[in-house]
Amino acid sequence: MSSPARRSAPVGSPTTQHKVVAMGGGHGLAASLSALRFLPSEITAVVTVADNGGSSGRLRDELGVLPPGDLRQALAALCGDDEWGRTWARVLQHRFDSAGDLGGHAVGNLLIVSLWELLGDHVDGLDWIGRLLGARGRVLPMSSIPLDIEATVRQPDGRVTEIRGQAEVATTAGEVMSVRLDPTDPPASLPALQAVRDADWVVVGPGSWFTSVLPNLLVPDLSRALHETQARRMLVLNLEAQRGETEGFSPQRHLEVIGAHAPDLRIDVVLADRDSVDDVTRLSAAAKDLGAALVLESVARGDGSAQHDPLRLAATYERIMRLPL
Question: Which positions make up the signal peptide (predicted)?
Answer without folding.
Answer: none
